[in-house]
């Protein structure tokens, strides 16, 4: 029987970050039960509210509704003495603080780690920035696009000899960094429980990208090999690429060893290719990359996509469609897995979002609500802190909240 408890039930998180990387960390924690207070500047809010090209309501777009979900919205100006004082009171009752300002900003506001740790010694402070809290570049600003380039991913994206292109999502580094930040927060929460310490988690936008470069780092260190752009191909395997079908669709084929090549050859009705000296082993195929890709491209181009995929799967060939977002919505497997969920949003109606990941069998995550309206829960949270209504009204009049 599935438990009604959530893994992070009772955990209080203060999310004072902006845009996506830091806030995405908070969103992950919120999905598994943490009470995440999304703290924004009064009157203006987080810049992520205007992210994307389509507004869902007057104060926010769909990106905000999806990526700030499950959070309670609070407005507070940390730059003002009264706002900083209120924040310190919140810190005293919090477990985790998430920030992604330019390094030195919190310190300039009088809210640096030394101050926050004095309030609560075992506080976990998650610090997301473009280049990290240390190093000669720590003061430089940056966004995901810059991180993709600096971390080595953009250099690999594009056709051979052509200009580098965006490697998929413009926000990929933000999401990867948010996940690493969440891992750091969770590891720190475990460490606090076991050892009574509160970590400062320091993660830079480019570092998650750098961590995911296959074996490029040790290979370059060993023999100086610099991987170049190869379009849809990959350096270590052939055929391992994208191939068009007769009906103009695109497919992705992953053939990473000789056994898979044998199965593909059988499926193509060409078992002789598996023993041909030019193609029998992976080194042979790498030496004849263009020929192998040509053979596979001709075969894929002779059939429409769906019957081709069905035929290849019968031979256990790892192959699949290259989906656009419309294909994703129509896919029965994605529907069955609950990858897309619908949330009813006040003043908007039904909004489709991505489901919660990962799945936990006994204490699963949950999607409770869409991103809050600006300051939606400010009064509620301050009342919980014991602040009377007239004081809340005065703070609002002074633009502290």
In short:
This protein is an alpha/beta fold. It has helices spanning 21-31, 62-67, 81-92, 105-108, 113-119, 144-150, 172-195, 205-211, 216-223, 258-267, 282-287, 289-300, 305-314, 325-330, 332-336, 378-384, 389-397, and strands at residues 12-15, 35-40, 55-57, 60-61, 72-75, 96-99, 124-129, 200-204, 240-244, 250-254, 319-321, 340-345, 349-354. It has a 6-stranded parallel β-sheet, sandwiched between helices.
Structure commentary:
The chain is an alpha/beta fold and 401 residues long. It is built from 17 helices and 13 strands. The protein has helices spanning 21-31, 62-67, 81-92, 105-108, 113-119, 144-150, 172-195, 205-211, 216-223, 258-267, 282-287, 289-300, 305-314, 325-330, 332-336, 378-384, 389-397, and strands at 12-15, 35-40, 55-57, 60-61, 72-75, 96-99, 124-129, 200-204, 240-244, 250-254, 319-321, 340-345, 349-354. The strands form four sheets. A six-stranded parallel β-sheet has the order 5-2-1-6-7-8, sandwiched between helices. A three-stranded antiparallel β-sheet has the order 9-10-11, with helices on one face. The longest helix has 24 residues, at 172-195. The protein is elongated, with a radius of gyration of 25 Å. The chain starts with 11 loop residues before the first strand and ends with a helix. The mean pLDDT is 96. GO terms for molecular function: CoA-transferase activity.
């Amino acid at each position: 029987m599935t438990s009604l408890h959530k893994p992070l039930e009772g955990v209080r998180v203060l999310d004072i970050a902006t845009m996506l990387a830091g806030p995405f960390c908070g969103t992950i924690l919120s999905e598994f039960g943490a009470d995440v207070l999304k703290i924004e500047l009064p009157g203006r809010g987080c810049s992520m509210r205007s992210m994307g090209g389509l507004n869902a309501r007057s104060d926010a777009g769909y990106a905000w509704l999806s990526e700030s979900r499950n959070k309670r919205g609070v407005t507070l100006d940390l730059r003002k003495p009264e706002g900083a004082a209120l924040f310190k009171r919140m810190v005293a009752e919090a477990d985790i603080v998430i920030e992604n300002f330019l390094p030195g900003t919190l310190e300039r506001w009088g809210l640096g780690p030394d101050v926050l740790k004095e309030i609560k010694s075992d506080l976990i402070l998650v610090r997301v920035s473009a280049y990290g809290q240390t190093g000669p570049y720590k003061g430089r600003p940056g966004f995901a696009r810059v991180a993709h380039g600096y971390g080595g991913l953009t250099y690999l994206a594009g056709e051979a000899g052509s200009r580098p292109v965006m490697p998929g999502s413009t926000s990929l580094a933000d999401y990867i960094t948010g996940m690493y930040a969440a891992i750091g927060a969770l590891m720190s929460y475990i460490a606090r429980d076991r050892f009574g310490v509160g970590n400062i988690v320091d993660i830079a936008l480019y570092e998650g990208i750098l961590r995911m470069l296959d074996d490029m780092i040790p290979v370059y260190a060993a023999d100086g090999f610099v991987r170049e752009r190869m379009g849809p191909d990959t350096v270590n395997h052939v055929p391992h690429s994208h191939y068009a079908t007769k009906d103009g669709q695109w497919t992705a084929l992953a053939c990473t060893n000789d056994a898979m090549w044998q199965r593909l050859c059988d499926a193509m009705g060409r078992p002789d290719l598996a023993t041909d000296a030019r193609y029998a082993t992976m080194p042979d195929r790498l030496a004849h990359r263009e020929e192998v890709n040509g053979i596979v491209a001709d075969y894929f181009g002779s059939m429409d996509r769906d019957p081709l995929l069905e035929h290849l799967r019968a031979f256990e060939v790892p192959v699949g469609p290259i989906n656009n977002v419309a294909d994703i919505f129509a896919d029965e497997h994605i529907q069955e897995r609950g990858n897309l969920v619908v949330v009813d949003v006040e003043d908007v109606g039904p909004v489709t979002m991505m489901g919660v990941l990962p799945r936990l069998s006994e204490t699963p995550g949950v999607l409770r609500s869409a991103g809050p309206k600006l300051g939606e829960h400010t009064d509620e949270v301050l009342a919980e802190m014991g602040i009377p209504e007239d004081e809340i009204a005065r703070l609002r009049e002074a633009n502290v909240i």
